[in-house]
Structures are given as structure tokens and as C-alpha cells.
Write a structure and sequence with these properties.
Helices cover about 30% and strands about 25% of the residues. It is of the alpha+beta class. Helix 5 runs parallel beside helix 7, helix 7 packs antiparallel against helix 8 and helix 10 runs antiparallel to helix 11.
Length: about 525
């Protein structure tokens, strides 16, 4: 291993918690399904109540035994599903093992039970599905399906309990973050299903600690991915419904779940565009999580209402008026020990005009560890400034981050938002970006503290619907709208290029971007 790779590795692990390093070592020596003797299976589990208020996307077609996840479909022979199928990547395999489709529309009790039994028969050959994360999601889906269909089958229950014990003994402390929350949510469902105090106590302890740690003051989840934020709200609301429908425990956990979801709903509504879209930043993807409106309605049905909290320590800001909505990312890394969904996008912004996307984020189309994944996480794929070939944050390995930028200043005064970061400190450059929002225009000021020998470029990615872009001197026009962009400063060039805009996993569309090369200072005026 060369010195560069060693430094990259060291700059990655130095942000990890001691607990993560410890459990990464421990997990290498753990034997699968160890420590069963400390929890005994009780076959006469207490039936619990469940009602599915939010339906999952229809991903399983029982007529031809096919599954569609991540915009890729696979048909299996009848009664012969390969639960290890890896032809579309690991995330697709994970989705196959999550069993979300048990709770979709148009699936019968008989079809669901048949899938479960096929899975149990196949399990000795199982690979990815035996990991704690898919076990967590699968367990919750099985409990919901079995409960609402009043299925009490000893073989299924025994298998589910075995997975429960494995999860209990293999909590993902090596990862933490949203993975740890999913483990805890699953144990809560399993504790109610089996009336198991050990499952419940471990779940409760994790939830109390992690919700207090992972939720920021303004209600944002510290990984700052709007999509994962929606998913976590869904899980919390499901847990609230579980507790309300089943009178088993009566302590302070319900109160914590309600207050947490209220804060998170406030943050989510604050960063959601008027047409219902969320900013596609930090591994957010279309049509994966429930919409903001669906979550608000679900919460209302449970008598959970959003708090009125202004955006604060998450570093995200949203400015809205009658003409446009401007989302600004003025944040640094909040989840320092779990930045797996982080993109190198300091001072990125997204602009909607008349409720339609105009300047957008490149988005996420894959979780595979490949060039596309690296490109989509890199600074060049976001609406901010690049210097030479450097990234603001060293993103690598699909889900890893080594050196990362720090926010050095943050000023917010009425319609002015300004911050600086040191992501280019290795070449001695500090980047300051200021947004000034007016009724009919947005002014963006980019200031670099010194003229560097490397090329300095401002990137602007337009929605695929914007096809008619005209560059004339330092002005840019759009034939299908009245929008004009004016650049001021020592401009070297304004170039138009094509890029791939992600419209979901494994789904991209050609779109246009601008690359504005300048020296030290650039003023961008967007007239709307």
C-alpha cells in the first residue's frame, strides 16, 4: 500500500468512535448465530394488532413471480426465487430480502405466506440476507404482515425468533447512525410480537441514546440526507402506532418517539419544496421514501403534530417567495463518525422556479462502488466551486470520507446567507459564498482568499427540461423562460456541457450544465 492510500485510510478511521473500531474487530471473530442459550423461544407468542396506514410501492408481481427494485426488474421461475441474486448489485439483493412487498397493495395472505415459507426453506444458502440490516427491515415487515393477517405459525415464529436473537447479539455498533436506529426499531417490533423484555429493554436503551444524539436541535437527522430523514420518521411513526395499538408497556418511550417525530417533521417540512419534492442531496433518491405530505398525514392520524422549529444547526436553509424557492447547503459534516451518505457538496444550492425544478443536484443513481458513484459524490457534480481536481471532502470507497471541510463562519441576516469553508486548505484557499435573496433575483458572491495556480470553476446543473440555453458574452438566457443569469468578475470562460442527471436508482437523463471559469471572485445574478 502506497503512502497516499495509507494517509487516506488513517484520515478516515481517525473520525470513528472507539466503539466502532472495537466492534469492527469483534465482528471478525464472531460466529454466526452464536449465543442462543441466553434467550429461549416461546412458541405461544401473544398476537398483536397492526394496521398498515402507509402502503409500500408495488414491487412484487405474484402473477409472473417478478420483483422490481431500483428501476430494475427480475423474473424468477415459479416457486424458485434466488434470494442471493446479485445481477443488479448488492442494494437490489438487499431490497429482495427486506420483504417490503409483503405490505404492498394487492398481495394476499396466501401469497405472502408462500413467500415467507420459500425464504425459510432457502435460508441455509442465504448470504446478504443474514446481515443485521436486512434482518432488521425484514423482521418488521414480517411482524406487520403476520399480525394484520392473524397468522400464528410455529415454524415461521421459530425462524423469526432465531433472527431476532441474532440481531439482539449483533447490533451494528461498528456502523452506528441510521443502521443502529433500524436495529432498535426492529427489536421494538420483535419485543411486542414475542412479548420479550430483553428485546424491549435493548431497543429502548438504544432509541433513547441514539435519538438524543442523532437528532440536531432543529430536528434534522445528523446524516443530513432528506430521504433517510423521511425513512426514519416513518419508522418512528410505525413504532408510535405499534405502542398505541398494543397495551403492553407503559413508560416514557412513547413520549420520546412523539417528541422526536415532531421535531423531525418540522425540519422535513421546512426543507420540502412546495410541489412536494425534497432536495436530492446526500444520497437522496426519488420514489424510495414516503412523501412529506404522506408522513404529515400519517402523523396527524396518530395525533402527532410538527413543532415549529426554524432551520438552525443542520446548516440547511430554505428561502421561499411567490416566484422561487432556494435551498442552500451551508453545512459541514454533522455525523462525523458515520458520513457514508455524505457528498462533497459544501455550498451547493437548488433552485425551483414557479414550483418547478430549475437548478438541481446531480442526484444519486447507484450505491455500487464504481466510477459513477464516485462522480456523483464528488464536488464537480454539485452547484458549487471546484479548484483544480481537488474535492472539498475526500470521498472514496463508495461510503467513506477521509479529510473533510469545516465551516469557519456562518452569517444569517434577513435575506442574506453567508459562510466560508476550508475544504481547500491543503492548497491554502478558503471559499466564502454569500446568497442575497431578493423578490425577483438571487445574487451569489463567491470569494476565494487568494488567486491559485489551479483552475477555479463554478458549476451550475440544470434540470433536464431546460434544453434551450444561449450563452452571449457574460449572460445566459433560457428560450423557454424569462430567466437570465449574469456573471460578473474576471471571467475566463463560460462553457456548456452535458451531464447525467439521476432520476432514481439506475435511471439517468441527459441534461445541461454550465462551467464558469473565473479568477478569485465571481458574482452570479439570477434574474427570475
Amino acid at each position: 500500500m502506497d503512502i497516499g492510500k495509507i494517509n487516506l485510510f488513517l484520515n478516515t478511521i481517525r473520525f470513528l468512535k472507539t466503539k466502532q473500531l472495537y466492534y469492527r474487530l469483534v465482528n471478525r471473530f464472531k460466529r454466526k448465530y452464536s449465543s442462543y442459550n441466553n434467550l429461549e423461544f416461546e412458541s405461544n407468542n401473544t398476537s398483536i394488532s397492526w394496521s398498515e396506514l402507509l402502503k409500500n410501492y408495488n414491487s412484487y408481481n405474484f402473477r409472473n413471480n417478478s420483483f422490481i427494485f431500483l428501476n430494475k426488474e427480475k423474473k424468477f421461475p415459479k416457486n424458485n426465487i434466488d434470494w442471493n441474486f446479485s445481477g443488479f448489485g448488492k442494494l437490489w439483493t438487499y431490497n429482495l430480502n427486506y420483504f417490503d412487498y409483503l405490505n404492498q397493495n394487492l398481495i394476499s395472505k396466501e401469497d405472502g405466506k408462500l413467500l415467507i415459507n420459500q425464504y425459510i426453506d432457502f435460508y441455509p444458502n442465504q448470504k446478504d440476507g443474514t446481515e443485521p440490516y436486512p434482518i432488521s427491515l425484514r423482521s418488521m415487515n414480517w411482524v406487520k404482515f403476520l399480525s394484520k393477517n392473524k397468522i400464528n405459525n410455529n415454524q415461521i415464529n421459530h425462524f423469526l425468533f432465531r433472527d431476532s436473537v441474532f440481531l439482539y447479539n449483533n447490533i451494528e455498533y461498528h456502523l452506528l447512525g441510521n443502521h443502529l436506529l433500524e436495529n432498535a426499531f426492529a427489536l421494538l417490533f420483535l419485543s411486542y410480537y414475542f412479548q420479550n423484555d430483553k428485546f424491549y429493554n435493548k431497543s429502548k436503551n438504544i432509541l433513547i441514546k441514539e435519538l438524543n444524539e442523532q437528532l440536531l436541535v432543529d430536528g434534522g437527522h445528523f446524516e443530513l440526507s432528506p430521504m433517510y430523514h423521511q425513512i426514519i420518521i416513518l419508522r418512528i411513526l410505525n413504532c408510535i402506532q405499534l405502542i398505541k395499538l398494543n397495551n403492553w408497556k407503559n413508560d416514557n418511550l412513547l413520549s420520546l418517539l412523539k417528541s422526536s417525530s415532531s421535531k423531525m417533521l418540522s425540519w422535513l417540512e421546512n426543507i420540502t419544496f412546495n410541489n412536494g419534492d425534497i432536495p436530492m442531496v446526500n444520497d437522496s433518491v426519488f420514489q424510495i421514501a414516503p412523501s412529506t405530505n404522506d408522513l404529515l398525514n400519517y402523523a396527524k392520524s396518530l395525533s402527532v403534530y410538527r413543532n415549529d422549529i426554524k432551520l438552525f444547526d443542520s446548516g440547511y436553509r430554505m428561502y421561499k417567495n411567490r416566484k422561487y424557492e432556494l435551498f442552500m447547503d451551508l453545512s459541514d459534516v454533522k455525523a462525523s463518525y458515520q458520513p457514508g451518505h455524505l457528498h462533497s457538496d459544501n455550498f451547493n444550492f437548488i433552485l425551483y422556479h414557479n414550483n418547478q425544478p430549475f437548478i438541481v443536484d446531480t442526484g444519486t443513481s447507484t450505491y455500487e462502488k464504481n466510477k459513477r458513484r464516485q462522480l456523483e459524490r464528488s464536488t464537480i457534480s454539485h452547484n458549487t466551486i471546484t479548484i483544480g481536481d481537488f474535492d472539498q471532502n475526500e470521498v472514496w470507497g463508495g461510503f467513506r470520507v477521509a479529510k473533510r471541510a469545516k465551516i469557519l463562519s456562518f452569517i444569517e441576516i434577513e435575506n442574506e446567507f453567508s459562510a466560508s469553508h476550508d475544504g481547500y486548505k491543503n492548497i491554502g484557499v478558503i471559499h466564502n459564498r454569500k446568497f442575497i435573496t431578493n423578490k425577483d433575483s438571487i445574487h451569489i458572491y463567491d470569494d476565494l482568499n487568494k488567486q491559485d495556480i489551479y483552475e477555479q470553476i463554478a458549476h451550475f446543473h440544470f434540470h433536464p427540461s431546460k434544453k434551450s440555453i444561449v450563452i452571449k458574452d457574460s449572460r445566459v438566457y433560457f428560450k423557454d423562460s424569462n430567466i437570465e443569469i449574469l456573471f460578473k468578475g474576471e471571467i475566463i470562460s463560460i462553457k456548456k456541457e452535458f451531464y447525467k442527471c439521476a432520476n432514481g436508482f439506475n435511471k439517468t437523463e441527459n441534461a445541461i450544465k454550465l462551467k464558469v471559469t473565473f479568477k478569485s471572485n465571481l458574482k452570479t445574478i439570477i434574474n427570475l
